[in-house]
Amino acid sequence: MAHPHLLVETDGPVRTITLNNPERLNAQTPSLWAALAEEAEELPADIRVVVLKGAGDSFSAGIDTALFTPQGLPGEQSVAQLAMAGADAIEEGIANFQRGFTGWSAVSAVVVAQVRGYAIGAGLQLALAADLRVVAEDAQLAMRETSHGIVPDLGGTKPLVDAVGYARALEICATGRFVSGPEAGAMGLANVVVPSVGLEEATRRLVDSLLSAPDAALRALKPLLHGAAGASLEEQAARERAAQAPLLLGQVAAARASSVG
Fold first, then answer.
1. What are 253's strand-pairing partners?
2. How far apart are CA 69 and CA 154, in angstroms?
3. pLDDT (tens digit, 9 = 90+) per residue, 215-233?
4. Would you say 115 and 141 are in contact if contact means Cβ atoms under 8 Å apart?
5. What protein family is recorded (predicted)?
6. Of 22, 92, 108, 229, which has the fewest Cβ atoms less than 10 A away?
7. β-strand 49-54 against 14-19: which pairing, if any?
8. Out of 3.90.226.10, 3.40.50.2300, 3.30.365.10, 3.30.70.1140, which CATH number does the structure's domain 6-212 have?
9. Rounded to an integer, what distance in angstroms lies between the CA atom of residue 59 and that of residue 52?
10. What is d(CA 201, CA 205) in angstroms, rounded to the nearest whole number?
């Protein structure tokens, strides 16, 4: 799905997806979420790393607030109209919105969010949809939904709790306060924190490090670790064994083929 505010570029095994509406601080809409969902669901098998970023000075200031007005935005589903359609319609609509966020955990590629400027509400939830986050020191991250009488609902609550713990996640969401880049790094919300001028270079170094790992092992590692928090020790040990067997068999087969050659 081509979208006027989504730029998709591919460089070998790396795909960069840029929210491209800097005049609106990359504000998000349902059509953008549908395009993101399609990008995740149709990601080519040979892509090893995906970088999510925002054009201009901010990652994303969140949902376009015009969607909460009765008139909404041309060509977009109005949240105000959705709210008047009843509970079932609300849940169905949100389920469709969430696909643009939750789909990234299912791809075999490692997803890296490059965050500068504002990452607010839906912006922070999209950053949380990534596996790793490279954050500028001057970034400002916030979950503002509860301050507006609602809750985060784009798949961001679980990765937030996984990253910083229940108490810190509750405090961040309930107060709606801004978290700086350095604080995000200290609490585990960011993997790498660098000055804004070094953000592109830091992202490139991380991507290069990911690409240096053998492809099959990296693709097996992501789902292995992704489900670890909810598994018992015995369950996770079994998952390790199941992931390791084909890798070792592949190495044996490659060694035999090399010796024959």
1. none
2. 20
3. 999 999 999 999 898 999 9
4. yes
5. Belongs to the enoyl-CoA hydratase/isomerase family.
6. 229
7. parallel
8. 3.90.226.10
9. 9
10. 6
